[in-house]
Design a protein that fits this description.
With 96 residues, the protein is largely without helices or strands. The chain has one helix and no strands. The longest helix has 11 residues.
Length: 96
Amino acid sequence: MKTDIPEGDAKDNSYTSRTGQSHIPVQKDEMPVEDPIDPATADSDQMLEKDDAEAIDKSNILRGGRTRGAKPDGSYAEPGDEEGLPGPDDGTSAVR
């Protein structure tokens, strides 16, 4: 069975900073990564409600209806089949 997965060491610390080499610190692959998500509460209805409450800007919601007082301007009309397409003399070739 042939696989396209390369073999080798998945850890490569050759890029980590050495003393006096660089002013930008780079940590090793083995170093723990800080995870701010608590797995016990991350997938809960309470967390979803909290996220929704934080994401919705209540000051940006229109009150009293769906419009800002604009009156309807006629009725909706379906666009034609050729509307918005380039004309026959635009320089492109037609493919049919």
